[in-house]
């Protein structure tokens, strides 16, 4: 591999305490801190080559030249890295997701974490993990949480430097599994950046934000104590609050499909029947069913039997972003 080239791999992540809304849209400073788990096996792998002969940034996405909007978003992120880090020249970027595109799994967190780590390494910069999380955040807020390993907290902060993420438990800490019920693989109609901008138009957002720090503490303690009952209660509540804000924003955002609600209700029923499982949803209709490892198979097969479930993906807690030697 040439000197100015590097490849990095980063997992997607699922938030237990959600990020929704910014105090600063440009810097992506969130209105509240958030918590997540990296999703092992669902990752983006990105190669960056800083190439003095290029006259613009180039992007190959999943083997094909990317559409202009995607290339532009990557170029904007690289501009920011050039400015902040004193890098020069343009970059050839090649990125692929190992999880099926259009499976409705948020890919921007994995993509911008991998892009940031690969671009810094290819530019021969030795940055701390904390610094990498702040840079990844500028591409996509949740990307900051895909840089550290395992279970991760992103501190809201009031400045660029203060708004960073760090791991609070390694992947082995708790055998928690995300069994993802895919009900629609279609791309979401409203990108999350627009949703963050309209979150403050909901009368419910101040109430959601007011309680966020307390929910975060409850959730973090539940994870540290491996207390599934406490975890389930706060995770579902936090997801419901975010979706209530989405639905009452102006214009409103309705991400659920009929199958989404069917699954949410089934998950609550299965919990009363003894399975350790709860749900959380991002900005889309697919349902992340979080469960203890012993119950993962039962949850997977029950989900497969529900109407409207197109596919089920399974992910355990994953590692942080890392520089790798590509296989091909
Ligand atoms: O990082 P973004 O801008 O794609 O926002 C992510 C928002 C949610 O997935 C809905 C919540 C979260 O904390 O991941």
User: How far is the first residue's CA from the last residue's CA?
Assistant: 11 Å
Count of individual helical segments: 9
Question: What is the element string, with H for helices and E for strands?
Answer: EEEEEEHEHHEEEHHHHHEEHEE
| Gross geometry | globular
Q: CATH class of the largest domain, please?
A: Alpha Beta
* Largest pleated sheet: 8 strands, mixed
What's the helix and strand layout?
Elements: E1 5-17, E2 22-24, E3 29-30, E4 34-51, E5 58-61, E6 64-65, H1 68-85, E7 90-97, H2 108-122, H3 129-139, E8 151-154, E9 165-169, E10 176-182, H4 192-198, H5 205-210, H6 212-224, H7 228-247, H8 258-272, E11 277-280, E12 287-292, H9 296-304, E13 311-316, E14 322-324
Parallel strand pairs: 5-7
Antiparallel strand pairs: 1-4, 1-14, 2-3, 4-7, 4-8, 5-6, 8-9, 10-12, 10-13, 11-12
The site of (3R)-3-hydroxy-3-methyl-5-(phosphonooxy)pentanoic acid has 15 residues, from helix 2 and helix 4.
Describe it for me?
Strand 5 and strand 6 form a beta hairpin. By secondary structure, this protein is α+β, with helices and mostly antiparallel strands. The relative contact order is 0.19. The chain contains nine helices and 14 strands. Helices cover 35% and strands 26% of the residues. Helix 1 crosses helix 2. The chain is globular, with a radius of gyration of 19 Å. The strands form three sheets. Strands 1, 4, 5, 6, 7, 8, 9 and 14 form an eight-stranded mixed beta sheet that branches. A four-stranded antiparallel beta sheet has the order 11-12-10-13. Strands 2-3 form a two-stranded antiparallel ribbon. Bound molecules: (3R)-3-hydroxy-3-methyl-5-(phosphonooxy)pentanoic acid.
């Amino acid at each position: 591999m040439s000197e100015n080239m590097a490849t990095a791999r980063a997992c997607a992540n699922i938030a237990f305490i959600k990020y929704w809304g910014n105090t600063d849209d440009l810097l992506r400073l969130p209105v509240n801190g958030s918590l997540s788990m990296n999703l092992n096996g669902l990752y983006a792998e990105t190669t960056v080559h800083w190439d003095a002969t290029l006259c613009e940034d180039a992007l190959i996405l999943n083997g094909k030249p990317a559409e202009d909007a995607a290339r532009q978003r990557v170029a904007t992120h690289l501009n920011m890295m050039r400015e902040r880090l004193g890098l020069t020249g343009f970059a050839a970027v090649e990125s692929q997701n190992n999880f099926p595109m259009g499976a409705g799994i948020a890919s921007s967190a994995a993509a911008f974490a991998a892009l940031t780590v690969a671009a810094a390494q290819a530019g021969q910069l030795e940055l701390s993990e904390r610094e990498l999380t702040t840079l990844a955040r500028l591409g996509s807020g949740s990307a900051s949480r895909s840089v550290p390993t395992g279970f991760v907290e992103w501190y809201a902060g009031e400045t660029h430097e203060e708004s960073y993420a760090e791991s609070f438990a390694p992947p082995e800490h708790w055998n928690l599994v995300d069994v993802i019920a895919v009900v629609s693989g279609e791309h979401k109609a409203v990108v999350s950046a627009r949703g963050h901008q309209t979150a403050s138009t909901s009368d419910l957002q101040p109430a959601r934000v007011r309680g966020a720090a307390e929910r975060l503490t409850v959730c973090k303690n539940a994870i540290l104590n491996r207390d599934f009952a406490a975890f389930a209660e706060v995770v579902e509540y936090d997801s419901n609050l975010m979706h209530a804000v989405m639905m009452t924003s102006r214009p409103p955002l309705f991400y659920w499909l009929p199958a989404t609600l069917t699954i949410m209700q089934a998950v609550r029923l299965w919990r009363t029947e003894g399975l350790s499982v709860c749900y959380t949803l991002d900005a889309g209709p697919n349902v992340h069913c979080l469960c203890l490892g012993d119950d993962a198979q039962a949850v997977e097969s029950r989900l497969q039997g529900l109407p409207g479930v197109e596919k089920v993906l399974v992910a355990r807690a994953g590692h942080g972003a890392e520089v790798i030697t590509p296989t091909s």
